[in-house]
Design a protein that fits this description.
The protein is of the alpha/beta class and about 425 residues long. Helices cover about 40% and strands about 10% of the residues.
Length: about 425
């Protein structure tokens, strides 16, 4: 019997061509031999014939076993199975069709299932281009668009903090935090209309909501030093929204004049009112997008009870959307990689396992120099941690994981990641 040394590789499959030919030759030889003997009425079962048939059966079985081991019989898996993997990635200003194609092809080869891609806000033309390229590479396309931040809206659209300052004029933390009020009818109409236009793009599978929240009333613990703050309570500068409509609507709903309270942060009804404002906005967007036959996903803070509600007023387990992407960025919370699995367990339980949760992982690009990087937003998972974060997420019930961002993955990251995403 011939055993074969020559192999060629195509994608994730191995094609041992000589082994296939070998199996075919032996199969044909065995069938010819048996059929020839069956045509003879005499001497079919003499000792010599039985021995020859037994020898041919042995060869046939050995050839079948070889094919099985090499992945070319019905007893082997066709390919290695992996968990669903997404990537958040923003489009650079110099991106071209060729550069997007190159990136998407590379990330698909590394095991990605789909892209949450920011092609420049509500730029329908750019999203159409990127979505088409994604589909050409077998990737699902989520049009990733921040919701509540807008630098050039009408000044009346912006939220007011507890001090009465409009986010249009005074921003918490960073200048780009020009946050609109989610209870403003004009803002709601604008967002519903814009997301609907994106949903009408043929190759867009999901619209992906981001910054669908209030300004962080409390920053994640890992960011305190960066901004020189100690945020052990809700401070007026980052506490939104106290515009006339929000104050009046809350009083009509609860009977409470929130401006008359000495410490509004102690009022649970006021917190719930703002959770509901975000939920109402999300569900209106979702209804419009679903009416176009498309789905909705969202990047959300971890929890929701442990972090999202407390930090940014997101009670996201009440949202009528199709998939959740919690940003389980452990370094932002001064937590180890093992924390990712623990918080994922809470997230999966919060939706009763009824909707998919994709655990968001923050990647450290300059991982060999991580200890010297002062800005926590330059931190993230190093190669030796990524396996624990992925496995912890999946064992906790996540449907998959999402990388922020695949462009930061080094060869060392990919090597560990590709092992971790394999389904045993």
């Amino acid at each position: 019997m011939r055993f074969c040394n020559n192999e060629s590789v195509a994608g994730s499959f191995i094609f041992p061509e000589d082994s296939i030919r070998c199996l075919w030759d032996i199969s044909r030889e065995y069938l010819t031999f048996v059929s020839g003997r069956l045509s003879q009425q005499k001497n079919l079962y003499n000792k010599n014939e039985k021995q020859k048939i037994k020898s041919m059966k042995t060869k046939f079985l050995l050839a079948g076993m070889l094919a099985c081991m090499l992945g070319f019989s019905s007893c082997s898996n066709e390919s290695v199975k992996t968990i669903p993997v997404y990537g958040w990635q923003g489009e650079g200003g110099d991106a071209t069709e060729a550069s997007i194609q190159s990136d998407f092809k590379k990330w698909k080869e590394h095991g990605l299932t789909g892209m949450c891609y920011n092609a420049g806000g509500f730029n329908a033309e750019k999203h159409a281009r990127a979505a088409k390229i994604a589909h050409a590479n077998g990737l699902e396309y989520h049009a990733w668009i921040p919701a509540m931040l807008k630098g050039d809206a009408d000044s009346t659209w912006y939220a007011l903090n507890r001090k009465g300052e409009s986010a249009y004029n005074v921003q918490a933390y960073v200048p780009y935090y020009k946050c609109m009020c989610p209870n403003n009818p004009a803002v709601i109409d604008y967002l519903v209309s814009e997301y609907t236009k994106i949903a009408e793009i043929p190759d867009v599978d999901y619209v992906h909501l981001d910054y669908i929240r209030y300004v962080d009333v409390i920053l994640a613990r890992g960011l305190w030093d960066k901004y020189g703050l100690v945020m052990n309570e809700e401070y007026p500068t980052a506490d939104y929204c106290y515009c006339d409509k929000c104050v009046a609507d809350f009083k009509a709903e609860s009977g409470i004049d929130i401006k008359a309270m000495e410490d509004p942060s102690t009022c649970e009804e006021w917190k719930q009112f703002r959770y509901n404002r975000i939920t109402n906005l999300v569900n209106k967007i979702a209804d419009a997008v679903h009416a176009k036959g498309k789905k909705v996903s969202a990047a959300v803070f971890p929890g929701p009870d442990s972090y999202a509600k407390k930090l940014v007023r997101q009670e996201w387990n009440k949202w009528n959307i199709d998939a959740f992407f919690p940003m389980n960025y452990n370094d932002f919370y001064l937590e180890p990689a093992s924390w990712v699995g623990k918080v994922t367990q809470e997230e999966v339980a919060s939706v009763g396992g009824k909707k998919p949760v994709y655990s968001g992982l923050f990647i450290c690009r300059d991982w060999q120099n991580k200890a010297n990087i002062k800005d926590p937003e330059g931190h993230g998972l190093i190669p030796s941690e990524i396996g624990e974060a992925v496995r912890g997420s999946i064992e906790a019930g996540a449907a998959g994981v999402a990388l922020f961002v695949p462009g930061n993955m080094t060869d060392e990251h990919w090597a560990e990641f590709e092992k971790a995403i394999q389904v045993k």
